[in-house]
Amino acid sequence: MRLVVFDVDGTLVNSQHEIVEAMNYGLRGVGLPEMQPQEILSIVGLSLPVAIARLLPGATPDLHERVVLGYREAFVAARAKGVVPPLYAGALDCLDALAAQDDVLLGIATGKPMRGLMAVLEAHGLTQRFVTRQTADGHPSKPHPAMLESALSETGVAASRTAMVGDTVFDIEMARAAGVTGFGVDWGYHPTVDLHGAGAALVAPDYPSLTQSLLEWTKQEQVA
């Protein structure tokens, strides 16, 4: 068997507007100035407390926690209004093509909590697509390899037969730490040059290219 693990924000769904709005809501709630989108999106992929600590390195843990709570409040309010980030064009076709392979399993590794992940998957009818779903709940933040290690343990697939698909250096660094192949995508939140620098096997320019590369990878002969 092969295992292909996907990141969510910036890889499967375009959630940048939601993330920027939620972070600035949290900042405003504690009296801090808003940040530019590029600065906020640079920390996407990290678990929320780690991301906020990186954005506000001089702030107290109490202030960090208040921003975390504000961010989550904004997300809950958006979900209550029916706001759901859209899938990137070609994402569903890619999942369909991989799922059609008898020897390929699909997984998720995301900095989202499980509640947030399930809300996205349910909104897009994808809850049954992924045999392993690893989230920020109970795992260290990316780029620690714990999420991928758990995915390998749950599925029984070897690291040499596993690929991680993501848009940030945290995804690629996590893949390298876990001994799996890292596939980058250039439509997300980190620059292509940074993904290459982190060790991505390739950086796909669009979903059709990613799909082709993943299908070719699944056919390669490798020692398990």
Largest sheet: 6 strands, parallel
The spatial strand order of the largest sheet comes to 3-2-1-4-5-6
Order of helices and strands: EHHHHHEHEHEHEHEH
Q: Bin the helical content.
A: 40-55%
Would you tell me the structural class of the helices and strands? alpha/beta
The third-level CATH topology of the largest domain is Rossmann fold
Extended strand count = 6
CATH-defined superfamily of the largest domain: HAD superfamily/HAD-like
Poorly predicted regions: none
| CATH architecture grouping of the largest domain | 3-Layer(aba) Sandwich
Shape call: globular
The end-to-end span amounts to 9 Å
GO molecular function: phosphoglycolate phosphatase activity
Organism: Paracoccus aestuariivivens
InterPro entries: HAD-like_hydrolase_sf, HAD-like_sf, HAD-SF_hydro_IA, HAD_2, HAD_sf, PGP-like_dom2
Keywords: Hydrolase
Give a summary of the structure in a few sentences.
The chain is of the alpha/beta class and 224 residues long. It has helices spanning 16-29, 37-41, 48-55, 61-80, 91-99, 114-123, 146-155, 169-178, 192-198, 207-219; strands at 2-6, 104-109, 132-134, 162-166, 181-185, 202-204.
Describe the structure.
Helix 3 crosses helix 4. The mean pLDDT is 95. It is globular, with a radius of gyration of 17 Å. The protein has a six-stranded parallel β-sheet with strand order 3-2-1-4-5-6, sandwiched between helices. It is an alpha/beta fold. The chain has ten helices and six strands, in the order E-H-H-H-H-H-E-H-E-H-E-H-E-H-E-H.
What's the arrangement of secondary structure elements?
Layout: E1 2-6, H1 16-29, H2 37-41, H3 48-55, H4 61-80, H5 91-99, E2 104-109, H6 114-123, E3 132-134, H7 146-155, E4 162-166, H8 169-178, E5 181-185, H9 192-198, E6 202-204, H10 207-219
Parallel strand pairs: 1-2, 1-4, 2-3, 4-5, 5-6
